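Could you help me review a protein record that somebody else here produced? What it holds is a sequence and that sequence's fold in token form. I need someone to confirm that the token line plausibly describes how this chain folds. Take the sequence as given and treat only the tokens as open to question. This is what I was given:
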Amino acid sequence: MLNEPDYAELTCISNFTFLTGASHPQELVAHAAGLGYSAIAICDECSMAGVVRGLEEARRCAERGLSIQLIPGSSFRLENGSRLVLLPMNQAGYTQICTLVTRGRRDAPKGEYALPNPRFERNLDDCLALWLPTGEDDLLTAHWLSSYFPGRCWMGLTRSLGPDDARRTARLLGMAQDADLPLTACGDVQMHTRSRRMLHDVLAAIRHGCPVSELGYRALPSGERHLRSRALLAELFEPEWLAESVAIARRCTFRLDELNYRYPREVVPDGKTPSQYLRELVEAGIVERWGNRGQNQGRQGFGPDPISKELRAQIEKELVLIGEMDYESYFLTVYDIVRFARDRGILCQGRGSAANSAVCFCLGITEVDPARMNMLFERFISRERDEPPDIDVDFEHERREEVIQYIYRKYGRDRAALAATVISYRPRSAIRDVAKALGFSLDQSDQLARNTAWWDNPEGFTERIRQQGFDLGNLNIRHLVHLVQRIVGFPRHLSQHVGGFVISERPLSTLVPVENAAMADRTVIQWDKEDLETLGLLKVDCLALGMLTAIHRCLDLVGMEISEVPPEDPETYAMIQQADTVGVFQIESRAQMAMLPRLKPACFYDLVIEVAIVRPGPIQGNMVHPYLQRRRGLEQVDYPSSELRQVL
């Protein structure tokens, strides 16, 4: 019977340690769960960028009956080249690690970090530390770590099946005993399976800017830096070292799901609750939008109601749901940003699913009148979906920076930052980098990349390369195809989101590390929009739109306000029906101009259909021609049920 002791791998890095880790966080978590590990720690270098993806995979594993504990940690290179892994015991420890990562990233150029040893003297009282020495005698660092992490630091022992394993282990045992550091088994893992060894070498070659053949000692000495079976680990390590890894994991009780995120409250005047202030603004917006002449008897305290019973019911329904889901401060923050822009004469316009909200219309965030349009609020916020709302606001592109800097000034750089965008390998960039690493000539790599589109399916590379005249029997070509297929989708670096701001009541670095963006005066968090959605963190999208700048200039030239433009102008629709729309936002493309004379929009809702139907989905689904025929009365409309008839 196999001896398979319990084990926790506490020293994994993923491909979010860019150009080093050779596996996605999801692959590491899934494989560790499959091997029966009790826990796995994702500890990318001075980064938390991959931990949320690991959390998502841990949830999927639990649904399949494979329970595994995910520990969010981070690792750091010390001045002597050794590696220190920090793990949080609780939420305070997680905050301490995020703050440390933020300091290291903010004090260095983008893509780097600066953490001299004195930095670790700051408060890390709620963190556990694992030290992976280089193998050389370093008693000074061993004693330093033992004193700064009393009872909370271990020396990690790795076994790479090299010829000097026994000698190295004996030396480290002596050093650990001298510094009074307990021992634990670890894998110093950089890939989930041994089969990623070649990809790891290619990543190292890309990182060092040389072919794989010239890596030398910069490549891994063996392929053992992967997640190994518990039976093999039992042969490599003493039982007490394996048991110690599990004991360490049990001391780490923090879960990412426990993050306590709160939206800022300074947008609420003293003496009022967010709910009270939001209702006050909505009622003021009702009067501003629809006037104060009552259509119905008003509610107590508000006088005659200027809106219909149906619209009042819709607004009340939205306010109740917003309150139940505790989103009032989010709406108030967006309102404050839009108010700032309009006070400065900056054109702005909310768009997307937020246009389904009557509350957003009352706050002046959107301009789609719910009294004229039959909007579906549940497309924006729904109890059933339990997803955070996402309000996108376009600003004049030449003046959006004023809005961005206003947000930084109001909330401070410690509480406001842009979301990240993960820049990943696409086919062309993957082919160029992998070909260079494998020693292909510049002409060959250019030829391969030039004939590949960014949307190409990696599985189709073999046929595409054959069409270009390359010999598929050549071993190097086969290696190239295999490695490109693996590296496409690998994260390359973090960039800033086009405008998604994350704002918090507490310093953001207590939730997620913050680093410098490539642009001056910008900072970004280490999570992208999907990560934010997973954890329920809210963002405000402050986007730039050149057409708003053009509209503003046009209005200045003709001496009009945008509110003076009539909503339904027959002469304008006559021009639209003739496809006289060059320079008209959203209906100026060739495809749109070809559709306009066929659909003949005559009202605003027709334009909504026009913009929506000229899309890949309706076109590929063969929906366009049947719709036009039914619109003209040339084809019968069959509804699946009477319930759907009213909706459709």
Remarks:
- The longest helix spans residues 274-290.
- The first strand starts at residue 8 and ends at 12.
- The chain has 25 helices and 15 strands.
